[in-house]
Design goal:
The chain has 403 residues and is α/β, with parallel strands linked by helices. The chain has two domains: 149 residues, Alpha-Beta Complex (Aspartate Aminotransferase, domain 1), CATH 3.90.1150; 236 residues, Type I PLP-dependent aspartate aminotransferase-like (Major domain) (Aspartate Aminotransferase, domain 2, 3-Layer(aba) Sandwich), CATH 3.40.640.10. The chain is built from 15 helices and 13 strands. A seven-stranded mixed β-sheet has the order 2-8-7-6-5-3-4, with helices on both faces. The chain has a four-stranded antiparallel β-sheet with strand order 9-10-13-12. Strands 1-11 form a two-stranded parallel ribbon. Strand 12 and strand 13 form a beta hairpin. Helix 5 packs parallel to helix 6. The protein binds pyridoxal-5'-phosphate. Pyridoxal-5'-phosphate binds next to helix 5. The site of pyridoxal-5'-phosphate (PLP) has 13 residues, from helix 5.
């Protein structure tokens, strides 16, 4: 008899990622020998810099191959502490710092340690794809606050104030943002901080993963930097994945109130034991390196951005807010979709761009913003130019159809 496998209720609520369908289709086309260009990757196209790889080799050869403390090796937590002091003027004792296997897991541990069924977490759309599911896995529900490009993705503070009422227990802010690439400026952080002051039961998570991939005039800031009085309930989440082209190494970190970080460490001790010991040694080398190590990569993303943003704007019915950093641009295609009725929505649009232009992009619905597309420029400039030529051809064909 065929065994009956019944999945848990928690998983029943998990949303399959709309990006998977595109990725599967792109893989199928590639397997058939079709020349697909992917602008869907959420990771740098560069190799991890050699000094970081060398530190990993040394760690392996010197026997750093055992379990580490669940909160992470002391040497890495010291490097993280020093990074916060130097870059952010934030001072954390070592027992307020946690090393996790990626920022994603740090956020998962946070949600698991903080939220109960019946609680709510407030997130801002367009949001990073995993927030809703990380929250749902904890049994809590999401409140999504929508923001719009025409308002430079600024939060409606009255809506925020209402959303933060109990049973809200967590607020997540990501700047510079995946998928828009837009940075939350100091003045805006100050006004958000003023609203948060009225809701002392809310823990604030600031997702700073793209902190160092930034070219705006205003330097990076986050809520605990701008509002020191809120530090006691802020958890800063960061990692080495994007900055140092280390997505596969799986090292992220979190810093915040000692009791919460301690609980997250206990949670890790029973779920993953610890982050990988060799990757931790590599992350020390990354965090102790000088900014020169990543300057070339950031310059390349910036250059590609400056090519791609105006090219996207030239497409009929498309609007794009220039990014302050990251390696993404978020194209608002709602006018195009209205005028080209042969394409129903962003999911169909992404699928048709893949099928007819051979370019993989991510539909905005994945980020809680239907009618948009996310294009990643973690791809060489020459490939990016080829992709844009194909998209432009596709666009012209569809606009004619729609006319
Ligand atoms: C905004 C944001 N936060 C967190 C993560 C998780 O990064 P990692 O788990 O690789 O550290 C990502 C990765 O795409 C991201 O874009």
């Amino acid at each position: 008899m065929k065994p009956m496998i019944r999945l848990s209720h928690r998983l029943a609520d998990l949303m399959p990622s709309p990006t998977l369908a595109i990725a599967a289709k792109a893989a199928e086309m590639k397997a058939k020998g079709q020349p697909v260009i992917s602008l869907s990757a959420g990771e740098p196209d560069f190799d991890t810099p050699e000094p970081i790889r060398k530190a990993a080799r040394l760690a392996m050869e010197s026997g750093q191959t055992r379990y580490t403390p669940s909160e992470g090796n002391r040497s890495l937590r010291e490097a993280i502490r020093d990074k916060f002091e130097t870059d952010n003027q934030l001072h954390y004792p070592l027992d307020s710092i946690l090393v996790a296997p990626g920022a994603k897991y740090a956020l998962h541990a946070l949600a698991q340690c903080l939220l109960n069924p019946g609680d709510r977490a407030v997130i801002v759309a367009p949001y990073w794809v995993s927030y809703p599911d990380i929250i749902r896995l904890s049994g809590a529900e999401c409140t999504v606050l929508k923001t719009e490009a025409r308002e430079h993705y600024r939060l409606d503070l009255e809506a925020l104030d209402r959303a933060l009422e109990p049973p809200s227990r967590l607020f997540i802010l990501n700047s510079p943002c995946n998928p828009t690439g837009v940075q939350c400026r100091r003045a805006e952080l100050e006004s958000i901080g003023a609203v948060l002051r009225r809701h002392p039961q809310v823990v604030i998570a600031t997702d700073d993963l793209y902190e160092s991939i930034l070219w705006s005039e205003e330097p990076f800031t986050n809520l605990p930097m701008v509002c020191p009085d809120l530090r006691g309930r802020c958890v800063v989440v960061n990692g080495v994945s994007k900055t140092y082209a280390m997505t596969g190494w799986r090292i992220g970190y979190a810093a915040g109130p000692k009791e919460l970080i301690g609980a997250m460490s206990d949670f890790q001790s029973h779920t993953i034991s610890s982050a990988n010991s060799i990757a931790q040694a590599a992350a020390v080398a990354a965090l102790r390196s000088t900014p020169a190590l990543i300057a070339g990569m950031v310059h390349a993303y910036h250059e590609r951005h400056d090519y791609l943003a105006p090219e996207l704007k030239r497409l009929a019915g498309v609007e794009v807010t220039p990014a302050d950093g990251t390696f993404y641009l978020f194209a608002d295609c709602r006018t195009f979709l209205k005028e080209a009725p042969s394409v129903r929505d962003d999911l169909t649009l992404a699928s048709e761009i893949l099928e007819h232009a051979g370019v993989a992009v991510v539909p905005g619905s994945a980020f809680g913003a239907p009618g948009h597309l996310r294009l990643s420029y973690a791809t060489e400039l020459s490939t990016l130019k080829q992709a844009m030529e194909r998209i432009q051809q596709f666009w012209i064909s569809r606009t004619r159809l729609g006319a």
